[in-house]
Amino acid sequence: MPKSLMKGNEALAKGAILGGCTHFFGYPITPQNEIPEFLARELPKTGGIFLQAESEIAAINMVYGAAAAGGRPMTSSSSPGIALMQEGISLLAAAELPSVIVNVQRGGPGIGTIQPSQCDYFQMTRGGGNGDYSIIALAPSTAQESAEMMIDAFELAQRYRTPVFIVSDGMLGQMMEPVTMPSKVPQQSVKKDWAAVGHDNRRPPITIKTLALDPCDLEQINLRLQEKFMRIRESESRYETYRISEAELIFCGYGSVGRILKNSVDQLRHEGVRVGLLRVKTLWPFPVEAFNVLPPRCRHILSTEMNCGQMIDDVRLAVNGKIQVTHYGRPGGIIPTPEELADHAKNILAGGCQ
Amino acid sequence: MFNERILCAGFGGQGIMSLGQLLAYGGMSEERHVSWIPSYGPEMRGGTAYCSVVLSEKEVGSPIVTTNATTAVIMNTPSLIKFEKSVISGGIILVNSSLVNRRVTRKDVNVYYIPAVELAGECGNQQAANIVMLGAYLALTQAVTEKSIISALPKVFGEKPKKFIDLNRRALELGQKAVLGHGPKLAAA
């Protein structure tokens, strides 16, 4: 299979087409604009629909409509744009509508900056919309993984009837890397007897709504959703370990930082310092099981992010007090260097400031 | 271990991004691990533009080379001021002396002053100054073969007439001549 050099954003867009995306709705925002640019050109060639909405709020509700009608829709945006979509995302989760939402994160809070960040970890894993719901959140680290996870996202969305997040960031979106694309991805045909596709007067109309005024009904709906979230937790968490054998300190990271940390680990191992990396590939469900297989020598986990400390909550819950966990991060659009991350780890191992 | 980290910097319009992309495409065709990342801040709209390229034997971790470049290609004065400190000790700084009006102050790097705009003019188009600089870089490091760079031209610039390829080939050669046979710092002569 030939390699092509592409931006992470283009790899996501190409992955969407291979994943069987039928509709794209979105509103421009940096640093994700290569996604709509690519899909505006390429999606119609595969019979799909590209539509630039009048706002993010309109876009996410168009996703609701297309999914309710049995399509495979997606939208993409960046941090403040995703914030605007939260009501619609809660509706998608409640109505169980298969859809894919890409967040190419930038620095916040507020309008912030267009530079890369991971400050939306809570937004992606705790939900910004109302109600008890969880959304699968896939976090690629390379352009190749961006394409693969995008294909996967469409598949997971159909399998579990759920919205799925792709959690990228400005660095992954803007950088170019070699990508090997599969030429075609076989798609499981999913029977959607729940979809509002027209009844031809042969059956009562289907309505897809999220209002459930009777608390007994709504309790049952919630329990059924929770049962689905439990199934997802049991089968869909993913992670990668890198050079963890005999490690005394293990970095934990994802996305851009997850790849930068490989340089830090290589540098420290070269100096004889025993460190390793646990790279989280699904922010939700969080790969709790990964923390049970860390080497016994490990006495410190350094949760590393481009924010002020968000994933550390999940790391601490997973470790459950057995190992010391601290955070190191750079917020606001600063990308940490491998050297500064390595220095921080050395300092911790030497008993210095944490 | 082969691990080239190149920082290219200059004004928007000097072909900074395409210089970096030629290296990334060229490296990819030689089975290297490669990455390219632009600066995409507001500085793209009128100020300095820069991009980072990594060519490596190993998987690329950080694609950003603003702190540990093995080579910096400096096309204008603001970029020299900003990125002189970004190169590792023993690294290379290639300076476009046609536009840069100051000298590198560091003593621990290998500096080559190349009148890239004039040399590009000799090839027939001053806009090929970036390719002259690329030729100099390739001559000093052998990071990518000239053949791979020539094959990468259509990927970066689209299909062009043979005249365009010939011009770029000449620009690469003049860049190469500007640094070979001269020690560091002498190439301005």
Protein described:
The complex is a heterodimer of chains A (354) and B (189). Chain A is an alpha/beta fold and 354 residues long. Chain A is built from 12 helices and 14 strands. Chain A has 2 domains: 3-235, Thiamin diphosphate (ThDP)-binding fold, Pyr/PP domains (Rossmann fold); 240-349, 3-Layer(aba) Sandwich (Rossmann fold), CATH 3.40.50.920. The mean pLDDT of chain A is 96. In chain B, strand 4 (69-74), helix 2 (77-83) and strand 5 (87-96) form a beta-alpha-beta unit. In chain B, helix 3 (116-123) crosses helix 4 (129-141). The radius of gyration of chain B is 15 Å and the shape is globular. Chain B has a 6-stranded mixed sheet, sandwiched between helices. Chain B contains 6 helices and 6 strands. The A-B interface holds A 3, 5, 30-31, 114-115, 170-171, 174-178, 259-264, 266, 335, 337-339 and B 21, 24-25, 28, 33-38, 40-41, 58-64, 67-68, 155.
Separation of termini of chain A?
Answer: 46 Å
Q: Oligomeric state of the chains?
A: heterodimer
* Number of H/I helices of chain B: 6
In CATH terms, the superfamily of the largest domain in chain A is Thiamin diphosphate (ThDP)-binding fold, Pyr/PP domains
The fourth-level CATH homologous superfamily of chain B is: Pyruvate-ferredoxin oxidoreductase, PFOR, domain III
Notable features of this structure?
heterodimer; A: 354 residues; Rossmann fold; 12 helices; globular; B: 189 residues; alpha/beta; 6 strands
SSE order and pairing:
The complex is a heterodimer of chains A (354) and B (189).
Chain A: E1 3-7, H1 8-18, E2 23-26, H2 34-42, E3 49-52, H3 56-68, E4 73-77, H4 79-84, H5 86-95, E5 99-105, H6 121-125, E6 136-138, H7 143-160, E7 163-169, H8 170-174, E8 176-180, H9 215-235, E9 239-242, E10 249-253, H10 255-270, E11 275-280, E12 282-284, E13 300-305, H11 311-319, E14 324-329, H12 338-349
Helix pairs in contact in A: 1-2, 1-7, 3-5, 10-12
Chain B: E1 3-11, H1 16-29, E2 33-38, E3 48-56, E4 69-74, H2 77-83, E5 87-96, E6 110-114, H3 116-123, H4 129-141, H5 146-157, H6 162-179
Parallel strand pairs in B: 1-4, 4-5, 5-6
Antiparallel strand pairs in B: 1-3, 2-3
Helix pairs in contact in B: 1-5, 3-4, 3-6, 4-6
GO molecular function, one term (chain B): oxidoreductase activity, acting on the aldehyde or oxo group of donors
Keywords (chain B): Oxidoreductase
Protein name (chain B): 2-oxoglutarate ferredoxin oxidoreductase subunit gamma
